[in-house]
DNA sequence: TCTGGGGTCCTAGGACCC
DNA sequence: TCTGGGGTCCTAGGACCC
């Protein structure tokens, strides 16, 4: 999203000057999945507000999806973290209320949020299901005070949709994002360059965008513990140790970032993937082929919907020891055919599989191009047009009557889901 | 004890060509 | 028989984000 747009040190001043007049908001839904569950349940008349009790949105333990996806503030106070196992969460808080996720609902709320925001500016970049950037640059005649505007937007969302957001304001996306993360929930914060030293530098270095659990310990070994430590560190040493990533996080620590707010229509998708953890370990080729087929079904449906073709297919595996490995192949043609992608995925699995027990499998297609003109491989069989027509027919039936309206007979009585996941944040 | 899913980008190492 | 180096492409793996 920020793209790895490293500004060389010579442009440092220039960057500040360029950004000086920009007005960027970052809107972040507080504990999104949980807030949306709570808002929806209250809308249906529930007297319990999940946000006010220790609660989490979590997957199903039985089918090995048992992790925390979102937590309430009281759950956070018990020490519960997003991503940890429900087992651990329950240990920390025995009275914890766990509700299953409902991705359709989240997409609905996300769309409603965007509809409200669109009333204020057309320059919106949806960064994820619960976050987006807004650009108000050049709109000073309409909105004189950005902070007052943020309060108005925040208030409307709360009143009309029933959940709270944090809004961060600055003159670039990075600072706006860090601002929205400062203190939660239901708050508006500014983080202008003049406030970096006071508001951002005292924060732990982990609070910086792109500093995750692998990078943080490496920085600590260099005695870099706060964002300020990183900002003041020798940039050349960071470059030497971490390559371009080093100069990027150094720039971020100094508040330097100048990417544009890009509305969704200007963002080209780079890859489409679907992976799933099975309730049981896959130990034979026949089951693997079935799992790969339903993964390919959703991936290729989405590929065709995006009006793209792909020329790279990848298969990933995670075994029962939690070791990940993968296999990929570049094609010398482009395709969006379910059967074709599936055949390649099966070959890749066969080549790569080490014979171990597989808990998670994934299929991903990339190196996409528009399907406006389809270059049919010289060596393609003559059924290409027929296969495309078949895929299109199946897509139409599924979109009209639902995913399960038409199911391949190999899934009948197989104990597997014919269509998997496919929700897109 | 149990550990999701959807993305983007970077890098090391090897193959291959000139 | 033993020896270059530069460039590009591909694969596998891993980092980060939500």
Average pLDDT, all residues: 90
What top-tier CATH class of the largest domain fits best? Alpha Beta
Question: Low-confidence runs (pLDDT<50, min 5 residues)?
Answer: 3-14, 418-425
CATH superfamily of the largest domain: Reverse transcriptase/Diguanylate cyclase domain
Major sheet: 5 strands, mixed
Terminal CA distance reads 15 Å
Helix content: 25-40%
In the sheet with the most strands, the strands line up as 5-6-1-7-8
The count of helical stretches stands at: 14
Classify the secondary structure makeup into a structural class.
alpha+beta
Reported CATH architecture of the largest domain:
2-Layer Sandwich
Rg estimate, integer Å: 24 Å
- What is the fold-level CATH name, i.e. the topology of the largest domain? Alpha-Beta Plaits
State the domain count. Answer: 3
**Helix-strand sequence:** HEHEEHHEHEEHEHEHHHHEHEEHEH
**Which term fits the overall shape?**
globular
**Percentage beta strand:** 15-25%
Give a count of the beta strands, DSSP E runs of length 2 or more.
12
Structure write-up:
With 425 residues, the chain is an alpha+beta fold. The chain has three domains: 21-28 and 118-253, Reverse transcriptase/Diguanylate cyclase domain (Alpha-Beta Plaits, 2-Layer Sandwich); 32-103, 3-Layer(aba) Sandwich (MutS, DNA mismatch repair protein, domain I), CATH 3.40.1170; 271-411, Dna Ligase, domain 1, CATH 3.30.1490. It is 38% helix and 20% strand. The strands form three sheets. It has a five-stranded mixed β-sheet with strand order 5-6-1-7-8. Strands 9-12-10-11 form a four-stranded antiparallel β-sheet. Strands 3-2-4 form a three-stranded mixed β-sheet. It starts with 11 loop residues before the first helix and ends in a 24-residue tail after the last helix. Residues 3-14 and 418-425 have low confidence and may be disordered. It binds a DNA duplex (18 and 18 nucleotides) through residues 1, 3-4, 32, 59, 61, 64-67, 69, 83-88, 91, 127-131, 209-215, 243-245, 269-277, 314, 322, 324-330, 360, 362, 364, 421, 423-425.
């Amino acid at each position: 999203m920020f793209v790895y747009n490293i500004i060389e040190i010579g442009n440092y001043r220039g960057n500040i000057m360029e950004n000086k007049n920009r007005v960027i908001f970052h809107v972040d839904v507080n504990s999104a999945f949980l807030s949306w569950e709570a808002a929806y349940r209250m809308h249906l008349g529930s007297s319990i507000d999940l946000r006010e009790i220790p609660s989490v949105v979590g997957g199903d333990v039985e089918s090995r999806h048992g992790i925390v996806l979102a937590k309430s503030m009281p759950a956070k106070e018990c020490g519960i973290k997003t991503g940890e196992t429900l087992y651990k969460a329950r240990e920390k808080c025995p009275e914890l209320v766990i509700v299953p996720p409902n991705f359709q609902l989240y997409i609905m709320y996300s769309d409603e949020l965007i509809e409200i925001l669109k009333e204020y500016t057309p320059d919106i970049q949806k960064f994820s299901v619960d976050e987006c950037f807004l650009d108000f640059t050049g709109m000073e005649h309409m909105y004189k005070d950005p902070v007052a505007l943020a309060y108005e937007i925040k208030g409307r969302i709360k009143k009309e949709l029933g959940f709270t957001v944090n809004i961060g304001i600055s003159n670039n996306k990075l600072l706006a994002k860090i601002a929205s993360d400062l203190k939660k929930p239901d708050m508006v914060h500014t983080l202008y360059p003049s406030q970096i030293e006071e508001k951002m530098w005292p924060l732990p270095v982990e609070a910086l965008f792109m500093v995750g659990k692998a990078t943080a310990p490496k920085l600590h070994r260099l005695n870099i513990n706060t964002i300020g430590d990183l900002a003041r560190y020798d940039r050349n040493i960071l470059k030497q140790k971490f390559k371009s990533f080093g100069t990027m996080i150094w720039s971020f620590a100094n508040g330097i970032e100048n990417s544009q707010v890009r509305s969704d229509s200007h963002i080209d998708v780079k890859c489409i993937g679907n992976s799933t953890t099975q309730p049981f370990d896959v130990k034979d080729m026949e089951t693997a082929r079935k799992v790969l087929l339903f993964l390919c079904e959703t991936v290729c449906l989405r590929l065709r919907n995006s009006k793209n073709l792909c020329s790279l297919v990848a298969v990933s595996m995670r075994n029962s020891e939690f070791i990940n490995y993968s296999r990929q192949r570049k094609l010398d043609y482009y395709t969006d055919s379910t059967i074709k992608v599936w055949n390649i995925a099966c070959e890749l699995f066969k080549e790569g599989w080490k014979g171990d027990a597989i808990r998670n499998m994934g299929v991903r297609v990339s190196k996409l191009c528009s399907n406006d003109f389809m270059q049919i491989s010289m060596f393609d069989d003559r059924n290409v047009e027929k296969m495309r027509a078949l895929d299109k027919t199946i897509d139409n039936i599924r979109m009209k009557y639902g995913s399960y309206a038409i199911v391949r007979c190999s899934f009948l009585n197989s104990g597997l889901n014919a269509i998997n996941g496919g929700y897109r944040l």
